[in-house]
């Protein structure tokens, strides 16, 4: 099903009898998602408002991410949360997945740039929440609730987003000699000083990567003092190219399994990533943790190889043998991006589960929106 | 302010309820002396007051849970309270409600500078979080003007902002997790590393829910390394609209100051008389603060100067010393106090797209003229969060009603240009009945469903946020079931 208007979409949901999977570009599905009849929002397109001076853009959910980014770029603006691009990705899908790239470490996730939503709930009712202004505490923040809700509470039809001016200068420092574990203290040092770091990651074969952005003079000054600070951890070099694109295109978001890691490990990149490529048929896990837990997680999982660290080592992408789960210290969370496991680890506690199920029942009383079966722990 | 008729059954059982609360509160205190309970009859919106049934001041999450279990069983309404500085009546009680005050829960539970986080009990004041990490070179970014008094739990309740949120975001953008007790006494932890839970963003919807979903007892907050330095500039203009247009131009140019504050003539005059900051004689002024090392600050100020010149400012004053910085901020920081000297005032909090500033400032001036009530403007211009202050005399019969009517008109204008009723103070009881200007029935129904899940009997702070007639059927269902 591919409605062209919000009203048509609402009608389809009202008329639906069996499970529906709300799909944007279908580029960020997790294992087990996309069951039942697919309800595509890809034909709900169009940027309905763009006010560069107010830093706001409003677009229908099916608008291609690429189209929005191109329009913003023409005014030297961008989405601060740096959504991982994927061919065919829609803005509704980006928001439903809360897909956020490296700059999340400084400017927050997709949900933090999201100002307002319109959606159709499971009863076919059209709901709007938030708006298009920077500060808004009028009523409950369903905007946050919808971001990352992955089509389980409603079908997004329109989103409004905060934009960000692109600063004149951007510079990346690399510490190529560092392995994943030894990159963590370097990333932490960069993030705990006055450098306004906008990216702090690690990639196999590239080492630790640290980005600063801003006015020209300021970037130059900060690069100097930051290099000095980082030299305690290993040789520091400025990068001429843009390694963040590599990271964004391949790593931290939610991409279709099989597709997402292709670029990074294909020979065409010309990068040597020996020993780090995911085993064929292996599992890929996304782990969020405190940076101080990252090294522990790596030691606790000797069979795993890290594919990337991002957000200052708050995000770890691990490649594991098929059908294995990562061992996790308390307070961390994991999700299987590729493999057989369904649902988060650890599974939600009974109170959280009750609240989540309660919300699903209220927003979708007939249980129309498909949810993947969870792996029983 | 109309509030629901208090539950007579609850009031009749007051002694029993207080005894049950005393039996479970452990190290905490239950106040039932009417004179002492008076201290909790209102918040900073002091025009509306009502002494509560009783006040409970717990000291641990377990005590909070025990109190809520008793109130849940007895079907007693509960009003969570931090420091009671809400400007919207958010922590104002009803006669049948127990105020659950978090003020005694103010400990720091953990600080980790490498992980850039601090965990505190929710009664801890906002400023004392920053003070705690200051020596290590860190700060907690959201800084409401009330930060000396207001509590983290109240900040989470209202999703509060501050002067620096233009660069650093508001509470929700700096909140990593909470421990919260639901009305039935169950304890839940929301959020996680990066503020992310395992599934739905429950933390996101709890923040800003005005104490209607649960009582937050602990919070994990993002702390940030302090910038090398900060310096303000003051720019004077001969018209408010020009100042508004200059704000839009600065935002657009990609300089990202930490704060852009706006004051118009009535406000400049009042603060000049009150605190003598030595402001220029002009129609409107902007205070813009930038951060960094001295050369970085110079670079940003040069850019701001170049943009401002295009708007023919009557003055461009660049701070050259700590003392000059202090004087530039002095007037802004004493603005509310200064307005208080002039008489009573009502502070609005609508937010508009920055591009609509000139139009809305003009509209407010016209409405003020027509209503015959002076309006002064002092606000966070960078993110369009306006604070028109309507000046009046509370002792003159009819004035309060006229002020409320003008306030409602101004807020409707904010909504009309694409904005909202409240940018940081919350709806509370104050703007409850204006919600229909911004939301359809279906929009409000969707929000109320969330409360149905967290608090099925509508016991937590239940007569707030939604227009009374809209939420009434839900409260009535509880009374009928009792
Ligand atoms: C002079 C002055 C200046 C101000 N400046 C600003 C400003 O710059 N920016 C801004 O955003 N606000 C400002 N405010 C408004 C107010 O200070 C904020 O709303 C503040 O966050 C309230 O905190 P509090 O601890 O006083 O909360 P309270 O007034 O006690 O409560 C506020 C709301 O939160 C709920 N709540 C309180 N504690 C909890 C808890 N533990 N769990 C769940 N819910 C809870 C209450 O039920 C209520 O709905 C100002 C107020 C004053 C008086």
UniProtKB/TrEMBL annotation, chain A:
Domain FAD-binding PCMH-type: 1-166
Entry keyword Secreted: no
InterPro entries in UniProt: FAD-bd_PCMH (IPR016166), FAD-bd_PCMH-like_sf (IPR036318), FAD-bd_PCMH_sub2 (IPR016169), FAD-linked_Oxase-like_C (IPR016164), Oxid_FAD_bind_N (IPR006094)
Keyword field: FAD, Flavoprotein
GO molecular function annotation: catalytic activity; FAD binding
One Pfam family linked to the record: FAD_binding_4
Protein name: Glycolate oxidase FAD binding subunit
Organism: Paracoccus chinensis
Automatic annotation (TrEMBL), chain B:
Cofactor(s) the record lists: FAD
Record's keyword terms, sorted: FAD, Flavoprotein, Oxidoreductase
One of the record's GO molecular function terms: oxidoreductase activity
SUPFAM superfamilies tied to this protein: FAD-binding/transporter-associated domain-like (SSF56176), FAD-linked oxidases, C-terminal domain (SSF55103)
InterPro entries from the UniProt entry: FAD-bd_oxidored_4_C, FAD-bd_PCMH, FAD-bd_PCMH-like_sf, FAD-bd_PCMH_sub2, FAD-linked_Oxase-like_C, FAD-linked_OxidoTrans_Type4, Oxid_FAD_bind_N, Vanillyl_alc_oxidase_C-sub2
The FAD-binding PCMH-type domain, residue ranges: 48-226
tRNA processing found in the keyword field: no
Highest taxon in the source lineage: Bacteria
Keyword Transmembrane assigned: no
Name under which the protein is recorded: Glycolate oxidase
